[in-house]
Amino acid sequence: MAGRPGPVGHRDRRGQRASIAIGIAGAECRNALISAATGRQHDPFAVTQRHARSAAEPDVRPGAAYAVAVSDDGNRAARVDDVDEMALVMPYVTVEYGTGDNPVYQVGGKSFIFFRNPRPDAVDPETGERYADVIVFWVESEADKQALVQDETSPFFTTAHFDGHPSVLLRASRIGELTRRELAEVIQDAWLSRASARRAAAWLSAHRPT
User: Fold this and answer.
1) Please, which pLDDT band fits residue 155 given cuts at 50, 70 and 90?
2) Would you call 197 helix, strand, or coil by DSSP?
3) Which of 17, 49, 142, 181 to pair with 207, CA 20 to 30 A apart?
4) Can you give the residue ranges of every domain in the chain?
């Protein structure tokens, strides 16, 4: 939407545009990501079963191995398993599992993406059935949140449960409305919103547009 940032091209908190860096990480969580759509009840902000899987020790220097250029398939429709791949390519990321084995991606112990179980605030407007495939992404600010959820062309949404919470929701069944490149930027910005100032600054320094 003109005059308002959308899923691609919005700026991070330091006013620097994060370049798109898509990497291919191990996909051990793919089955969990896909099966998460079946959902089992748990507190969406709690992680009760803590057995973390860490990404490889990152090198945040320019040209680091974890950061690669946009691949030829950057314009293809995003898929659910891209969330796992691109979240884990960011540095210092661990994965925790809540009740129901839904993955929660964290940096420095702070969640920036999680797969949510069916909840009464997110339902099909026609049938009243709870959505079983909601993914939650953190955002930097309320302005960023509103830019995404108010854009009629965007698949992102929110509910009253998340009023005042710096996050947007996306159904896995609609993730294909984003390109892989667009999803990468959403994930990067989610990570930047939760990483420490030092880690965020190092990542941005290593990924300035050329």
Assistant:
1) very high
2) helix
3) 142
4) 30-206
Instruction: Answer positive or negative: Cα dihedral of 19, 20, 24, 27.
Output: positive
String of DSSP letters for 73-103 = TTTSBP-HHHHHHHHHTSTTEEEEE-TT--E
pTM, rounded to two decimals: 0.71
Element holding 145 (H helix, E strand): helix 142-149
* 50-81 pLDDT per residue, tens: 344 444 444 443 333 334 434 557 899 999 99
Residue carrying the six token digits 């547009």 = 209
Question: In Å, how far are 95, 108, 171, 181, 193 from 147, measured between CA atoms?
Answer: 28, 27, 18, 18, 16
Rounded to whole angstroms, the Cα distance separating 171 from 122 reads: 10
- What's the pLDDT at 72? 53
Average pLDDT over residues 131-143: 96
Q: Is 144 helix (H, G, I), strand (E, B) or coil?
A: helix
Give strand pairing partners of 111: 106
Coarse DSSP helix, strand, coil percentages of the chain, rounded to the nearest 5 percent: 30, 20, 55
